[in-house]
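Need the bound structure for NAP, inputs here:
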Amino acid sequence: MSVFWLITGASRGLGAALARAAVARGDRVLGIARSPAAAGESLCLDLADLDALAAAVGARLADAQREEPAPQRWVLVNNAAVLGPIGSGWQAGDVEQVLRVNLGAPMVLARCFLDCLAGHPAPRLVLNVSSGAATRVIAGWSLYATSKAGLEHFGRCLAAEHRLDPRVAVVSLSPGVIDTDMQARIRATGPQDFPDHARFVALHEQGALADPDTVAASILRGVDRGLRWEGASCRLEEFAGP
Ligand SMILES: NC(=O)c1ccc[n+]([C@@H]2O[C@H](COP(=O)([O-])OP(=O)(O)OC[C@H]3O[C@@H](n4cnc5c(N)ncnc54)[C@H](OP(=O)(O)O)[C@@H]3O)[C@@H](O)[C@H]2O)c1
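Answer from helper R.:
Posting the output first, comments after.
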């Protein structure tokens, strides 16, 4: 099975692990981040620049449909995200940046991905990487959590808009806590801005953070199941299956 992956945040953390795992098994990967992807082809740009993003990805997807062998599955992983300021000291500019990267870019990419591939016969999956914070209230994470709640609702709406097209699947996936730069940034924030600080420090000390490569392998397993998700929100275990 030849799979074409479009992965945001492919330079570090979970996105980098996914890109490496997909390339290692012979899939094609286009990774988007400000710095180069850990594996595959890189498209270096700032996801906050939504117009540039749509133009660059549209052009690349048009080319990809002419390449041989033709992909038998297309997967968009909206993985990149930023926490933004933790605590209540954020400003208007922070709101704009977090919502552009965490919500605007996934929406623009999903639209571009589905529109560009409209004439292609292969199945396509929009996989939005979410977080438990989309539904759980975590004091100090209002920007991040709100963006993830919006992303999950966008997934439900997008699936409804494409419910008559059996080629389209949409899922919001909460991957669990993973040992990445994002977790290091959480631990580096003082407890004065973040009441749950001690819990995240303890998770790290107890070795409870998942290895990004292990999470990536589970995501690949879930994608290979080829299920037609209709905007559902799920945890990694549900997505990856038995
Ligand atoms: N880590 C966890 O415990 C955890 C838990 C639940 C959910 N998640 C979710 O899992 C996903 C991956 O998280 P992670 O922990 O791997 O994060 P990470 O280690 O902080 O990596 C973030 C990635 O996003 C890219 N990125 C950030 N801002 C960008 C921008 N403006 N333009 C382009 N790329 C940008 C970064 O690349 P550049 O800096 O090179 O641009 C990097 O590749 C996120 O959606 C996160 O919310 C993580």
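Comments: The chain has a mean pLDDT of 97. Residues 3-176+213-240 form a domain with the Rossmann fold fold (CATH 3.40.50.720).
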